[in-house]
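Trying the structure run again after the queue cleared.
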Amino acid sequence: MRLTRRALLHQLGAAAIAPFGGAAFARSSAPYPGDPAWHQGFSLFGTLKNPPGFSHLDYANPAAPIGGKVRQSALGTYDNFNQVIAGVKGNLAFGIELIYDTLLLPSLDEPSSAYALLAETVAYPEDFSWVRYRLRSQARWHDGTAVTPEDVIFSFRAFKTHSPRFGAYYRHVSRAEVANEQEVVFTFDAPGNRELPGIVGELVVLPKHWWEDSDASGTRRSISATTLEPPLGSGPYRIKSFEPGRSIVYERVKDYWGEKLPVRRGCNNFGELRFDYFRDLSIAFEAFKAGDLDWHVEYSAKSWATGYDFPAAAKGQVVLKEFPIRNRGIMQAFAFNIRRAKFKDPKVRRAFNFAFDFEAINKEIFYGQYKRIASYFQGTELACSGLAQGLELEMLRTVQDKVPEEVFTTPYWNPVADSARDARKNLLHAMRLFNDSGFSINDMQLIDPATAEPMQVEFLLQNPGFVPPVLSYKASLQRLGIGVTVRLVDPVQYENRLRHWDFDIIVAVWPESLSPGNEQRDFWGSSAANIPGSQNLIGIENAAVDVLIDPIVFAKSRAELVAATKALDRVLLWNHYVVPQWSIDKMRTARWDKFARPENMPKYGVAAFPTIWWWDAQRVARL
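Done. Tokens:
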């Protein structure tokens, strides 16, 4: 199941959606054997933590005061409020999800559970072949209009049709229908895909009547086009004001229909949320230090170690806090575009790993704060280790003729350089790997056997923070005779180049939930390799990978899911699609001391800011 908000994470494909016909709604013809029970939410494995009729989520404070303002930063720019085409056209404004509700709302203290929000209840059979949602009768758009099943179907159709990522994510939904005045039903193309009811529950529901109407100028709105007209929402916030590309302010909806729901009590307590855009994180940090921003997430190890010696921090007016990250695994890496011939050979890609001196970079640039990544599911029980055993080994044997021999014989490892001597040995091994791939040295340059030209690579970056480590990496690669260009571009140009697969090497990040599923097809599946907008940035077309994704999607138990994920992890690692970078298991935050939070923080919510925090007038008075 994908992570919320960044989603970053969908499969590719298409499926038919049943038309409404001429009636206000079409009766569903889907069978419902056994008359399954209605539930207050959905849990991928096990049961929901909170019983029916619970008053509020444990990590929320229902007595939290309402009001106050929060100023945060966003990176880059924006020119679009339309979520449907995010990643395809334009740059979506940060925080736009605040104006909408979804059918279900994920819990922040359960690994794979969600509770009814727009939906009142949900029903599904034991084989997970369909799901039925009953909407709350009190659910309203900000204009007072009721949220209807037709809105749900319209939204599903919009995302499926106009977003390659969501088209893939919903590919296994074969039919979506209005059942009656309050209910919708989604039928799936096969039984056993147990996360599909939850995937449908993540659907952002849009107002059909608003999108099919005209704007103030009389122009018909288009769900397939970018827009800077503030959309109609149903969520706890609405857009108050904005300057395109520079800032956006959301205000709390005073008559929000869902304010007293158990999943909303004690949440969304701030009166205003403002996001100011910056081209560079270092400039955003200076704005924070000057008091122009209230909350700052620190991504720079150097800044965290040396940058907080300004007066407000010394006086305690600025609070530093590290929050543990328990809600995801991660692969952050130098990712190759293997659509390009020079990166086709796994030995070439492995040679790049031997040229990467992580230990020197961690010491000299990162103040020793990071650990090297050695799994696509780093930081979770899903990461492979040692040699495959038990169920994982059984799964791997089904693709034994399609995977590298090391998958069965050798635990995955990254080269280590604890000394200058080790670094030299690693470079020599890298050169041997290049030689094994047919490369040769001529006039101090590494010659590509396919083109008879010198090997040249470009690192395409959008974050200036990656420039120092890449320059260190560049020096090592140049010692091997590789010509290296480091190109830093703005976010718009960066996204355009990614959409057209116009890159050699990028810094890519794949966040993984604790219960991976259908999104794995979009990350690594062959069907996504050449679809613009997919997350298969590398261009992987590997039959073994395709086979191993299925046991993840159709796992019947947590044990099956863990084994299947470890098997996939091992095969991805030994194909050397990336040079793994580094990670840290904490979120480093700094804030002006204006806010309070519950003592009982959610296990999987990281900082959960600003969702469950509130404005503290007494703290503000002391500043």
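Residues 41 and 126 are 15 Å apart (CA to CA). Worth checking whether this holds up in the mutant runs.
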